[in-house]
Amino acid sequence: MRGGKGYRRIWAFDFDGTLSPIVPVRTEARLHPACRSLLLDLARSPDTLAAVLSSRSLDDLVSRVPVRGLFLGGGSGLEWRLPGGQRIAPGREAEESREKALTRLLPVLEKITSVSGTDIEDKRWSIAVHYRKVSPDARSTLTPLLDEVRRREDVRVFDGPAVAEIQLVPGWDKARGLENLCHFLRFDPSGGRIVYAGDDENDGTAMRWALSRKGIALAVGSRPRVAGARVVSGPAALARVVRSLACHAGNGGEKTRGRDG
């Protein structure tokens, strides 16, 4: 594996809602064809590093991104698979934190599970509470339970489209995951050398981190999650915008503002 100094830029992407459209059944999520083509081209670029950073478990993510040459981060970047197949796992401390948090959460998780229409997804490093099918009446029961989880100091809750994701490792988010990637690659992200695209609150932490290093943030959806992010309407629009940015970067300049519909 090359050291980070060999790369001119990192392109990092969330998966669900970013490279893949949001689907009613989460197990059916697949790369949008335009994004798959984009990732293939980025992975072949000699001076570019492309990464997918998801809150899904690493094994789940690997099965959904069949593109060689990518860095794949599961659990919001707690675990990574490198292009050569090597894996970087979190340490014992993260494992212990996960177990303790999960044990403490079990009573309230049982109450959440009893709310009609909820769908609990165990992502190993987080628990996602999907409530798309919860009726308005049932949400009056669910909301206080999620608020109870939000008040806890040993976990953090990130909101997404009809989902509340409970991060089980204290202090961890996608900004930490992105920073972790740069750290083990010895890649200096300053000076606008990093681009991050995502669609939910956890992605917002990585967007702010990228922007703080003069990079670019792309918010997929109808509105920006953070100030300074450029809004793109969906996966197909994201692929077009990234190709345009890559072209401008290759020509010595790029657009960082505006909106693509």
Describe the structure.
The chain has 261 residues and is of the alpha/beta class. The chain folds into 2 domains: 4-90 and 172-260, Rossmann fold (3-Layer(aba) Sandwich); 92-167, Alpha-Beta Plaits (2-Layer Sandwich). It is built from 7 helices and 13 strands. The protein has helices spanning 33-44, 58-64, 92-113, 136-150, 174-185, 201-212, 235-250; strands spanning 9-13, 48-53, 71-74, 79-81, 87-88, 119-122, 126-130, 156-160, 163-167, 194-198, 216-220, 230-232, 259-260. The strands form 2 sheets. The chain has a 9-stranded mixed beta sheet with strand order 5-4-3-2-1-10-11-12-13, with helices on both faces. The chain has a 4-stranded antiparallel beta sheet with strand order 6-7-9-8, covered by helices on one side. β10, α6 and β11 form a beta-alpha-beta unit. The radius of gyration is 18 Å and the shape is globular. Residues 254-259 have low confidence and may be disordered.
Tally of helical runs: 7
What's the total count of β strands? 13
CATH architecture of the largest domain: 3-Layer(aba) Sandwich
Tell me the structural class: alpha/beta
Rg from alpha-carbon coordinates? 18 Å
Largest sheet: 9 strands, mixed
Average pLDDT number: 91
Helix content estimate:
25-40%
What is the number of domains?
Answer: 2
CATH class of the largest domain reads Alpha Beta
What pattern of helices and strands is seen along the backbone?
Answer: EHEHEEEHEEHEEHEHEEHE
CATH H-level superfamily of the largest domain: HAD superfamily/HAD-like
Shape: globular
Q: What fold name goes in the CATH topology slot of the largest domain?
A: Rossmann fold
Termini Cα gap = 37 Å
Strand fraction band? 15-25%
Unreliable residue stretches? 254-259
The strand order across the widest sheet is 5-4-3-2-1-10-11-12-13
